[in-house]
Specification:
The structure is a single chain. The chain has helices spanning 16-26, 44-53, 72-80, 109-128, 178-186, 205-214, 236-249, 265-278, 313-316, 319-332, 347-351; strands at 5-10, 29-34, 37-42, 61-68, 93-102, 139-147, 150-156, 196-198, 258-262, 284-288, 302-305, 337-342, 357-363, 366-373. It has 387 residues and is of the alpha/beta class. Strands 2-3-1-4-7-6-5 form a seven-stranded mixed beta sheet. Helix 3 (72-80) runs parallel beside helix 4 (109-128), helix 5 (178-186) crosses helix 6 (205-214) and helix 6 (205-214) runs parallel beside helix 8. The radius of gyration is 23 Å and the shape is elongated. The mean pLDDT is 94.
Length: 387
């Protein structure tokens, strides 16, 4: 019988439902959904599948255990009691890469990291019968999250965050992350046969992620992960299987209408290069164009965009005029649906209409709003499908 693990997938706060649906679509069972993370059950293959296929997770953690600790002595003894030998081979290079603490008596990250490392070493000394570890094997970074004196302890299977798809070599100012862009697209009813335009495309993240969704390109198929070298937990052949499956699912000749505009010509050139690196440049039309010229002859399209937030005072002065211009552009696209993520809390006022839905999302430490202006549904074709 295959061993089942508890795997934890952190995500942006407010987008847990999107990630949950992705995990269910992969065929794995959800065990819990909490703020900013989804936990699911899976075998060794699930470790590879989740890293390769999930678009909206930040990383995949393999749960080792949970401990209740109000003192450092309790943290040491209860961490030492966990079966670390089931996860860390004798030559493992292991360290506590990150420790966080919320509403807990133990709150010093560096002290938590030091105590946990010592506890693991003491456990493995006894198990392996050695007094010193070479640590010249595969890397096993450990993460600890304290919440109200309960510590979740897990191994990081991913390494570099999953938003690092490998295609974004050139970035514009204040780019949106790839995982957040994907989640926001998946929150909409957009499908690959519908028009999608981003009038503030910047690095091209929204159009590129949309094109990858349309072409069924798995976001992790062209990068590496730490757990690929964990022969004891996740044999490399499972990763080959996941990537081979991903390659078989790609539809590069899909027909789609995805467009990205920006007022800065250099930015547009960077977006084109990023799209080329992602293998979807043939699916996206990039063009230097201001939002004042946003128009489209076809109906029932989508605008999904991340306009300037105005984080600096001198930029904020320009926001009313900019968002009025966005509103005028939207009025020309009266049958379209528009989705805008911004931290500007006066966006609706200056766009000139109230959003049908508004979801609060944290983009890093910035509180943003995902304004959703829903257009009419397209009429059905003669065969019952919508045009």
């Amino acid at each position: 019988m295959k061993k089942l693990y508890e795997l934890i997938a952190p995500c942006h706060f407010g987008l847990e439902a999107v990630l949950k649906r992705e995990i269910l679509d992969l065929g794995y069972e959800i065990s819990s959904v909490e703020d900013g993370r989804v936990t699911f059950l899976g075998d060794a293959q699930a470790i590879a599948d989740a890293n390769v296929f999930l678009r909206t997770a930040e990383r995949i953690l393999l749960k080792v255990g949970t401990v209740h600790a109000e003192t450092f002595d309790e943290l040491f003894e209860r961490t030492k009691a966990l079966a670390w030998e089931e996860y860390l081979p004798k030559d493992a290079k292991f360290w506590v890469a990150k420790a966080t603490s919320v509403k807990s008596r133990l709150f010093s990250p560096s002290d938590i990291q030091s105590i946990v490392k010592k506890a693991i070493v003491e456990r493995l000394k006894t198990v392996y019968g050695v007094s010193w570890f070479q640590e010249d094997g595969a890397q096993y970074p450990i993460r600890i999250c304290f919440m109200k004196d309960e510590a979740l302890i897990a191994l990081d299977t991913t390494g570099e965050s999953l938003h690092k798809r490998g295609y974004r070599k050139l970035t514009a100012k204040a780019p949106i992350s790839e995982t957040l862009a994907s989640a926001l697209i998946l929150l909409t009813p957009w499908k690959k046969d519908r028009i999608l335009v981003d009038p503030f495309c910047g690095s091209g993240t929204f159009p590129i992620e949309a094109a990858m969704i349309a072409a069924n390109i798995a976001p992790g198929m062209n990068r590496s992960f730490l757990a690929e070298s964990w022969a004891n937990l996740s044999p490399r052949r499972l990763w080959y299987d996941a990537v081979e499956e991903a390659q078989d699912l790609v539809e590069t000749e899909v027909e789609t209408d995805i467009q990205g505009y920006d007022i800065d010509g250099d930015v547009v050139r960077s977006a084109r290069e990023n799209a080329r690196l992602a293998g979807v440049d043939h699916l996206i039309h990039f063009q230097r164009r201001p939002v004042s010229e946003l128009n489209h002859p076809k109906k029932y399209g989508f605008v999904i965009t991340n306009p300037p937030y105005g984080e600096r005072i001198e930029e904020r002065e320009n926001l009313p005029g900019l968002y009025q211009e966005i509103g005028r552009a939207f009025s020309r696209l009266d049958s379209w649906s528009e989705y805008v993520i911004t931290s500007y809390d006066q966006a609706e006022k200056y766009i000139g209409k109230k959003a049908d839905k508004n979801r609060k999302i944290y983009n890093g430490m910035i509180k943003t709003y995902y304004y959703q202006f829903l257009g009419p549904r397209p009429p059905k074709k003669g065969n019952g499908e919508r045009i």
